[in-house]
Design brief:
The complex is a heterodimer.
Chain A (H helix, E strand, L loop, with lengths): L4 H4 L12 H13 L4 H27 L14 H12 L1 H12 L9 H22 L25 H34 L3 H10 L7 H34 L11 H27 L8 H31 L3 H12 L1 E4 L2 E4 L4 H16 L4 H4 L2 H28 L14 H24 L5 H6 L15 H9 L5
Antiparallel strand pairs in A: 1-2
Helix pairs in contact in A: 3-16, 4-6, 4-10, 4-15, 5-6, 5-9, 5-10, 6-7, 6-10, 6-16, 7-8, 7-9, 9-10, 10-11, 10-15, 11-13, 12-13, 12-15, 13-15
Chain B lengths: L15 H5 L6 H8 L13 H14 L29 E9 L2 E10 L2 E7 L12 H10 L9 E3 L5 E3 L4 H22 L4 E5 L5 H13 L4 E4 L6 H11 L3 E5 L6 E5 L10 H10 L12 E6 L4 H5 L2 E4 L5 H15 L8 H4 L10 H12 L4 E5 L5 H13 L7 E5 L8 H13 L5 E5 L3 H4 L6 H5 L4 E6 L11 E4 L8 E4 L5 E4 L12 H9 L6 H13 L5 H11 L17 H10 L12 E6 L13 H5 L7 E2 L4 E3 L1 H7 L6 E6 L2 E10 L7 E5 L29 E9 L7 E2 L14 E3 H6 L3 H5 L19 E6 L8 H9 L7 H5 L8 E7 L7 E7 L8 H5 L5 E3 L5 E3 L9 H4 L7 E2 L4 H4 L15 H4 L14 E2 L5 H14 L11 H5 L5 E5 L6 H6 L4 E2 L11 E4 L1 E3 L8
Parallel strand pairs in B: 6-7, 6-14, 9-10, 9-12, 10-11, 14-15, 15-16, 19-24, 21-23, 27-38, 28-37
Antiparallel strand pairs in B: 1-2, 2-3, 4-5, 4-16, 8-13, 17-18, 19-25, 20-26, 22-23, 22-25, 28-35, 29-30, 31-32, 33-34, 36-37
The chains are: A mainly alpha, B alpha/beta.
Chain lengths: 486, 1024
């Protein structure tokens, strides 16, 4: 290319400069139109098997009772709420990428936002499952909703769990709407490319009669902006509210004002990590390296470095305050239950009960993202894949550390206990991963996994302008090549 | 209601018709017999309910648990209401129960004919309104679904088989067989007829024994119980030449020295001892005195845990210690032992710290006439005799120690008695053996060969609640009536006579000991009611007004004027004591890893094994080790290190002359070195569905010469990893001000010392605090007088329908007890800690952290300040329990009431609860389903009852109208419940007491329960 205005003004291309509209449409749409590759089938069947395992475990759980979990007294919450917070945290990246980055005009988000939004929705679905099934009598869960009834039952709005109900359901509703609104132009593209009547009818119905008129675009853009504006505070509120479950209690290790920002940072951190994991797989399986480029990946790694450092700071500050406050119960939780380094006669030893969970968390969440200071590691696909998985393991441990290690040894030593999971704990957790995988793979197979219209919007050709003749040679060539329908 | 055989005698008090003719089937029973659809015979293998349970479980298994139709249950009104019975209003009946030769007077609550709760009879001298753990738990024995329901005879294959198709037919078959047999004996005067009985404290039993001897002059009675008081009796006989009971007044004693004596829990008279001991230590103000308790014992007991100074000493060295102490007193303090002095010799003081002789002797010498020395029943008679000499020399007799005549003066040394029987059986001299109660095949000394020769006896009968180990070796088994089902009478050790009044007709047609004995004696009217009345009438003489007297006795529970004050003017027989003490040789050689001692103690839960199928007791945590569902071999930490043994490792114990046994090891701080503590009563083979195979049977190791302890034991450690489930795994206070204790000196220096250890919340509340007008319920728990005996825990369980969860669930940390007893070890030396007990249930915080986190308002504050649970609202988020700083909330992870009935895979189901067990439920307390949180309610049902009474009568609620179940049961009176707004209430006074503190006050919860710091009274000379 002889003349490259983007390079000339000192910017780099988000996508290769020779990417055409057609190429974008083609490479995204064909995933839904061609036969699924073998890799998809393997992953799908595996996920479906795990989702079946979830169903079986749920049946058993409801039949036998929540004693099927390993929870006990004092550890009344364990994997159930750990999984809930973990999934909710993962669900944060979607809104953040879609809404906040949209409002900040971060154009690089276009290649990953659909992906992240879908992930959010499925993650929130998995998250929402846990509070529903961890209750002793799940068939009465509706007591938590403010439904007028003859029993004069009304929820207790003082309870952070109630706030959770509203925060999570609002978040889910808005995220779903946002995702769906963003999908409409792309659904129309798929409708127009349909070769069968059935396909045309289904996509057509969901495309809501989209014809790409100027008026449609205007309404669409406005709706999208409004939803983005509504979603933005939700990114902060949902996980803040989730953190109130802990922060408003009296339990040492939970009763901490640092929790809301700490939880939000952690949520974004884990959400980005999961987007990264999924993106790297999909990008390879469906060969979309030219739409999701190294530039995107590197930017995401920088995000993880930033949020990982925030999380690390929160860990340190939490620890400092536990010591500085002089509260013996809180200091005990940090020193003995978590850090667990005992300096005794036999030298330094790890003597606490959950030291392994705490140190796994520190390694995964604090040390691993620090490697992204190095460009070489930041742009290494194998390393970033490994790091993204480690970060999510670390974030699971973070929630487990907060919940179980605080609970298992609190005020009265006579009540101290220890939690160990049962098979059901494990199958329910793995099962939700299966459910998530199943939904996500179906999404990839039936919906455009990358926002076609938005990616096109950030291509240079979408921004035609006057200039010297020849400036628009690529555009002219493009116009000639594209079909009129585009 | 009861599921009974239609031909069984009907339940007591059901109607006046029943009362008039108890033999006639009731209308309902007749109706039931003709309406197979409406009532299920007990014989049906798969009952309608059972079928529905199965189908329900199946439906649940396919995920339809929400759609199960509940079985139709009909509630039938009385067609003719019995007089006095008002549905919903419980009645109380006075009765009595036997405990180690003593009688405990009880008041039993009955709801529409079902006894549901047992309390102490305030008018009875042995209980004074309190009870012990076994009295509280005996309801579960009554409603044990595995009780034998029919007389049975050994069949050709050697198994017991029902002797008839109905209870009545089976009894008839037995009576015919017995009658024929006795007729044969009429010819030979009872030659070859032996009766093996329990130690008797019943006047009717003594009368019938005479009657049997009249009919069969050659018949012989033998007495056996595994936990006998024979050593006490023989020691007293040595010292005084008379069969007497010894009474100690622990309330008046300033110094108490307990030598291997758990006098507050397992020794005879424990309930009254505990009350008196607590009274001697109750501190109203810093100027009050309290007694000082020294305990010398091998294995920690609740008495040892209450001690101001505790010396862990192997049981065999206790006699040596006593001799050395007497020597010290005689030599350095001028205590005159008379002729006994010479017998003391110069015992070795190896292993006994000097201060335990010098300082203890000085303390005893300085408190002459105001102290008590007491020895435990497993110590040999010579030790008891020397204790009597010591008490006499110290001038205690007549002041703090007194005597009353023995109830059964004929009682002999039980081992000798049983040995004679076993020898006669072995020699073939016994043709007919009638065993009334007990379980000698399980608990007789292993070397007597009793069990082996029992099977060879031509005609043997065992009267027993279960078809247990002994029944299975007898020709006949006869179901025995529970104490709450049968008429009887009993004397306490101070002579107080009580009538045992049944609360319910025998559920399974059982007979009592005296009824069977009356049949043997050939009495025409052998019903318990007639026997007891006849005994009473005979003892009264032919006076008038018997009916009036009888009704009064039944109402009061004790015959007025029968209790005698212990007297003290018995002459002591010094030469006999001297010769016994001379024979009390110092043990040879030192104990070590290859020469260990074992001690046998009654289990503080299962006692001697008679409660082995009682789920409440099986799950009750041991007061010291906090182990449930098992016993273990207790080793001191240093012994465990020397043997290389860890917790849960199997030990094979061997000793010459005894069978080897295998027991799991448990490292018990406070255990004497090289002494292994074993608890009796476990490892039953035929206890029932809950008790079979639980724990380890140590009876095979207990021989006739070593009933209390034995040395020369070697240990072979085996496989590791036996699971011992504990309810409290962490015993250190971690330096926290939780169970606060101080010395009497510290208390006098600063009476408010607990408040300096806790931090009161100084932050002003964010909102206005509630000013509670009207009632303001509160509780006070005194850690000084609490011994940790567990009576409150079982009382709470019985009152509040609290389920048991089984060993696996306890190991998971899911026990349900609303009131738990926390036991902490205090001190640096892990081999020899001090103990502190802290009962804790919900403290009913005024600012309850549990309340504002519940999303569905299932736990909320009442206007009287109770932290109430609305079970119907609870969906089980468990958030409240997480936010409870006291961790007193309990969650129904499964349907625990039915959990033990199945294999636990489907989590239990309420309809699996045996119907007879459902009879125990307190109808005033909701039976919680799975998935629901529960916790101490301050016995809100009792509060409501009192409020209803107040509204009805117009009187304000008085402090003595009611109390919580735990407070009512507590023999120490350590727990007090009442209205804090009532200026006359005890609890309001106690809350203002200087020692009172609020647990975890710094969290800002403002609890309604106050604890009062434990005050110890150590001897300053014993320090260092």
């Amino acid at each position: 290319m002889s003349h490259d205005p983007i390079a000339e003004i000192g910017e780099t291309h988000l996508l290769p400069p020779d990417t055409t509209f057609h190429h974008v449409t083609e490479s995204v749409s064909r995933v839904t139109e061609n036969k699924a590759p073998r890799g998809w089938w393997i992953l799908f069947l595996l996920s479906l098997a795990l989702a079946g395992c979830l169903l079986a475990s749920l049946t058993y759980l409801v039949t036998a009772g929540v004693g099927a979990w390993g929870n006990n007294n004092p550890v009344m919450w364990a994997w159930d709420i750990t999984n809930f917070v973990w999934w909710i945290g993962i669900g944060h990246a979607g809104t953040l990428i879609s809404a906040i980055l949209f409002l900040f005009r971060q154009k690089w988000r276009t290649s990953i936002n659909r992906f992240a939004e879908a992930m959010t929705i499925f993650a929130v679905m998995c998250a929402g499952l846990f509070p529903g099934i961890h209750t002793g009598r799940p068939w009465f869960d509706y007591y938590m909703f403010p439904i007028p009834n003859q029993m004069a039952l009304w929820p207790n709005f003082k309870s952070p769990l109630m706030w959770d109900v509203f925060a999570v359901s609002t978040y889910f509703t808005i995220s779903l709407l946002f995702w769906y609104v963003g999908l409409i132009p792309d659904l129309a593209t798929l409708r127009d490319r349909s070769k069968t009547a059935k396909r045309r009818a289904i996509y057509g119905a969901f495309a809501l009669g989209w014809r790409g008129s100027n008026r449609h675009w205007r309404n669409y853009e406005r709706a999208y902006l409004i939803l983005a504006a509504i979603s933005t505070p939700l990114v902060l509120s949902v996980h803040s509210v989730v953190s109130f479950d802990f922060a408003t209690s009296v339990l040492p290790g939970w009763h901490t004002t640092i929790f809301p920002p700490y939880f939000v940072a952690g949520a974004v951190f884990s959400g980005f990590a999961l987007v990264m994991t999924l993106l790297l797989i999909a990008r390879t399986v469906f060969q979309m390296q030219d739409i999701v480029t190294m530039k995107h990946l590197e930017l995401m790694n920088k995000f993880m470095l930033a949020t990982g450092s925030l999380v690390g700071y929160a860990y340190a500050m939490e620890f400092f305050i536990a010591w500085y406050s002089g509260n013996p119960y809180e200091w005990h939780v940090f020193r003995s239950n978590r850090l667990a380094i005992t300096v005794g006669e036999g030298g330094v030893s790890m003597a606490g009960s959950y030291w392994w969970a705490y140190w796994a968390m520190i390694f995964c969440n604090v040390l691993v993202p620090q490697t992204f200071w190095f460009k070489k590691l930041r742009t290494s696909i194998p390393w970033m894949f490994a790091a993204s998985i480690l970060i999510n393991i670390g974030m699971w441990f973070e929630r487990f550390v907060i919940i179980a290690t605080s609970l298992h040894r609190d005020f009265l030593p006579s009540s101290w206990g220890y939690f160990s999971p049962t098979i059901i704990d494990i199958t329910l957790y793995i099962g939700t991963i299966g459910l998530f995988g199943t939904l996500f793979l179906l999404f990839i197979r039936w919906l455009p996994m990358i926002a076609i219209a938005e990616v096109k919007g950030v291509l240079p050709h979408a921004d035609p302008h006057h200039g010297t003749p020849g400036d628009h040679a690529p555009l002219d060539a493009y116009v000639a090549a594209e079909s009129p329908a585009e | 209601m009861t599921r009974r055989d239609p031909h069984d005698p009907p339940a007591m008090w059901r109607s006046l018709e029943d009362k008039a003719d108890p033999e006639r089937p009731s209308r309902r029973a007749q109706a039931e017999a003709h309406d197979p659809d409406g009532f299920i015979s007990a014989d049906a293998i798969v009952s309608r309910r059972g079928f529905l349970t199965l189908s329900g479980a199946t439906a649940a298994a396919v995920g339809l648990s929400g759609c199960i139709r509940r079985p139709v249950e009909n509630i039938l009104p009385y067609s003719r209401a019995p007089e006095y019975v008002i549905p919903g209003v419980p009645m109380h009946f006075a009765t009595v129960t036997e405990r180690r030769g003593d009688a405990l007077g009880l008041l039993v609550e009955s709801h529409e004919g079902r006894p549901t709760k047992i309390e102490g009879n305030p008018d009875h001298p042995a209980t004074e309104g309190a009870t012990d753990v076994w009295a509280q738990a005996s309801l579960m024995d009554l409603y044990d679904p595995d009780r034998s329901q029919r007389a049975a005879r050994r069949d050709g294959a050697g198994n017991l088989a029902d002797a008839g198709d109905t209870t009545a037919a089976a009894h008839q078959a037995f009576e015919e067989a017995l009658g024929a047999r006795l007729e044969e004996h009429d010819a030979d005067g009872g030659a070859g007829l032996r009766l093996l009985v329990q130690p008797a404290s019943s006047p009717s039993f003594l009368r019938l024994r005479r009657a049997v001897r009249e009919r069969f002059p050659s018949a012989r009675f033998h007495t056996w119980s595994p936990l006998s008081s024979s050593n006490l009796r023989q020691g007293a006989w040595l010292a005084f030449g008379l069969p007497v009971h010894v009474h100690q007044d622990f309330a008046r004693a300033r110094v108490i020295l307990a030598l291997d004596s758990d006098f507050t829990m397992t020794e005879p008279g424990a309930v009254r001892n505990q009350r008196r001991f607590a009274n001697g230590r109750r501190l109203e103000s810093p100027s009050d005195d309290m007694s000082r308790l020294y305990v010398v014992e091998p294995s920690p007991t609740v008495t040892g845990a209450s001690a101001d100074h505790r010396l862990r000493l192997p049981a065999r060295d206790v006699g040596r210690y006593l001799k050395a102490l007497c020597r010290e007193l005689a030599s350095n303090h001028g205590v005159d032992f008379g002729a006994v002095t010479g017998a003391l010799g110069s015992p070795s003081t190896e292993g006994i710290p000097e201060k335990w002789l010098g300082a203890v002797a000085r303390d005893l010498a300085e408190s002459r006439g105001q102290n008590v020395v007491v020895a435990g029943s497993r110590q040999p008679p010579a030790v008891h005799a020397l204790v009597h000499a010591l008490n006499r020399a110290l001038g205690n007799i007549g002041r703090t120690v007194g005597f009353t005549p023995a109830v059964d003066p004929e009682e002999r040394d039980q081992v000798t008695d049983l040995r004679e029987l076993a020898e006669a059986m072995g020699a073939g001299d016994v043709r007919t053996l009638i065993i009334l109660g007990g379980n000698p095949v399980y608990d007789a000394p292993a070397d007597l060969g009793f069990a082996e020769s029992l099977g060879d006896i031509e005609f043997s009968v065992h009267l027993s609640m279960h078809r247990d180990e002994t029944s299975r070796r007898c020709l006949w088994h006869v179901p025995r009536a529970h104490e709450l089902e049968a008429w009887g009478d009993m004397r306490a050790i101070d002579g107080a006579l009580s009538v045992q009044q049944p609360l319910i007709a025998p559920l399974w047609g059982g007979r009592s000991e005296i009824e069977l004995l009356a049949q043997v004696a050939g009495e025409r009217n052998w019903r318990g009611h007639s026997i007891v009345r006849r005994t009473m009438r005979e003892s009264m003489g032919q006076g008038t007004g018997f009916e009036r007297f009888w009704r009064r006795v039944l109402h009061a529970g004790v015959v007025p004027g029968t209790a005698v004050a212990p007297g003290g003017d018995l002459p002591i027989r010094e030469p006999e004591i001297a010769s016994a003490v001379r024979d009390l040789r110092d043990p040879e050689g030192a104990l070590g890893a290859d020469d260990l001692e074992v001690t046998f103690a009654p289990c503080p839960k299962l006692f001697d094994g008679r409660h082995a199928n009682n789920t409440w007791l099986l799950e009750l945590p041991d007061p010291i080790s906090k182990i449930c569902w098992d016993n273990a071999a207790y080793l001191s930490p240093s012994t465990a290190a020397a043997l290389g043994v860890e917790n849960g490792q199997m030990l094979r114990l061997s000793r010459e002359g005894a069978e080897d046994i295998e027991v799991a090891a448990w490292v018990q701080p406070g255990q004497a070195d090289f002494s292994i503590g074993l608890l009796l009563g476990w490892g039953r083979a035929h206890a029932g569905r809950y008790g079979d195979g639980r724990g380890f049977d140590v009876y095979p190791f207990r021989t006739s010469t070593a009933l209390g302890f034995a040395s020369g034991v070697s240990v072979r450690p085996g496989a590791t990893g036996y699971l011992l489930a504990q309810t409290q795994e962490h015993g250190s206070l971690e330096g926290r001000a939780i169970a606060i204790e101080g010395t009497l000196e510290e208390y006098r220096d600063e009476p408010r010392f607990p408040k300096f250890q806790t931090v009161e919340m100084n932050i002003p509340p964010l909102w206005d605090t509630v000013d509670y007008q009207g009632h303001k319920w509160g509780m006070s728990i005194d850690l000084t007088t609490c011994t940790g005996c567990n009576a409150c825990t079982i009382a709470c369980q019985a009152e509040n329908n609290i389920p048991v969860v089984g060993k696996r669930q306890v190991a998971r940390g899911r026990e349900m007890s609303w009131l738990r007893l926390d036991r902490y070890f205090v001190g640096e030396d892990e081999n020899d800690p001090r103990f502190i007990m802290q009962p804790i249930g919900c403290v009913h915080c005024e600012e309850a952290p549990c309340e504002n986190v519940c999303p569905v308002n299932a736990t909320a504050h009442s206007p009287e300040g109770l932290n109430d649970m609305a079970y119907n609202r609870c969906i089980g988020t468990r958030y409240c329990a997480n936010n409870c700083p006291y961790k007193v909330r309990r969650f129904n992870y499964f349907t625990f009431h039915g959990y033990l009935e199945g294999d636990g895979v489907l989590g239990g189901d309420y309809y699996g609860v045996p119907e007879v067990k459902q009879m125990q439920f307190n109808p005033n307390v909701t039976v919680r389903m799975r998935g629901v949180m529960e916790k101490c309610s301050y016995c809100v049902q009792r509060i409501q009852e009192a409020k209803i009474r107040s509204r009805r009568t117009g009187e304000p609620i008085q402090d003595d109208w009611f109390t919580s179940a735990c407070a009512q049961a507590c023999p120490s009176h350590a727990i007090v419940f009442g209205d804090l707004n009532d200026p006359n209430s005890e609890v309001a006074r106690l809350r203002q007491r200087d020692r009172a503190y609020l647990l975890l006050a710094e969290v800002g919860t403002r609890p309604r329960t106050t604890h009062m710091a434990a005050v110890r009274n150590p001897n300053p000379e014993m320090n260092g």
